[in-house]
Structures are given as structure tokens and as C-alpha cells.
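Model it.
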Amino acid sequence: MKSLLSLVVLAVAVPTNTLALSTSRIRTRSSSSSSSSSSDYLASLSSPNSRRPLESTVEEALEKPSLTNNDNNLSPFLQGMVNEQRELQMNVGKAMDVLRKDYPYFLKRAPDYSIYHDSVSLSASDGKIQLSKLSSYKKAFGMMRTMLPLIYDADRSVIQSRMVYDATKTQIRVSFNAMLVPKAGYMGMQGKTVHVDGISVYSIDLSPTTKGGEGKIIEHRIEKMLVNGAALQPPYFNAFGMEMMTGQQQGGTLAGAGAW
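Modeled.
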């Protein structure tokens, strides 16, 4: 009986041990394979020739010089021309912005003279108005701004303008019209509203800064000036109802300022 039980126990134990041994071998092989794969992966990362494509692409892009700024490829001569054109464009843009803001408020505040060259000239198409130098230019506009508000209501008067830039001539053309409303009680011009229409042309100085130029307005030319539909003629004060102010020299000065 005992021998029979021993045979049964032996028969059951043999498969169990064999299965355990096989499982142990499988685990050992899997662990070895995993360790080998991890070692190979770490070795591949440390190798300079085995970097991942994404990292390589990013690093190469950072190492290459930027090509967005084409100016770096220009010769000094061409680079100077490009810089001059940029400066000219900035000055033209500033001049147009200033003129656009100054025209409507001419009767209320002084214009911004920073856009004008020190040697700016003021002239008319008929040749009767000739001024030079910024100091004389300021006086002309200053006198006009002083006299007009004495007669006309700055709050009720309206000045409008339209401008265009002629790149071929580097000129700013401004067409303007003003509706000057007399102050209450003023009998000049029989108390009627005065309508002024005109065209002014502003020429930009093209001399580069390195040669003494400033890229500012060097000439202001009045191409047309109409008061109530008639061409402005001396004595200029009379056209605005200022008969007490006569004299061609003073009239010419005021006519230049009246181009605003």
C-alpha cells in the first residue's frame, strides 16, 4: 500500500517540477533579452551618429545662419542704397502723417515744423510768392494763423484735405478746401462764408543723411489758390475781408500761409 502511494506522489511531482523549471528558464531568457535591448538602446542614444531625426533637424536649423534677412548678402554699396530708401520711406510717411493732422487744425494750433528742411522754400505757380528759409516760412504761417482767427470762427470753420504721394517725383500733393465762417457781428465780406480751394505740392529732399541731407520737405509750391471761385490776386488780404491790411509784400507772405 505504501509503495503504491509513493508511486502516485512521484508521478504528480515530476510534471510540476518540470513546469517550474521551464518557467524559470523562460524568465531568465526574457530578462537577458530585455537587458540586452536596453543596453543597445542606451548605446544608440550616446552615439553621435545615431541621433533621432527630429533632434538632428532642429539642431541643424539652429546652427545654420538665418536667411530671412537678405540684407546680410548685399554688398556695402547696395546696403547703403537700401538703407537710404528705407530712411526716405520713413520720412515720407512721417511727413504725410503730420500734414494730415495739421491741415484740419490750422486755425487752432501751430503746425509741426519738424518735417521741413531748414532751407525750405515757398513759391506759387504765378511767381508772385517767393520765400526761403524755415524762419521765413514760420513767420508766414504764424501771421496767417494770427489774423484769420480774429475774423473767422475757428470752431465753426472747416478745413479738409486729400493727399497722394508721387513716388516718381518724390512729391506729396495735397488738395484742400476750407470753409471760413465769420465771427458773429463781423461785417467784412458782408458776413458771408469764405470758401478757399487750392493745391499744394511738397517736394522731399533726396540727399542722403551722410551727405548733409535730412529727407525732409525742401520745397512747398502752391499750384492753385481760389477764394470763392476766383484766383487769389494781390492785395491778398482783401480776398479774406482784411481790407485794412494792404501791401504786396505782406500779402505775399499771407498768401503763402493761406495755402494751408
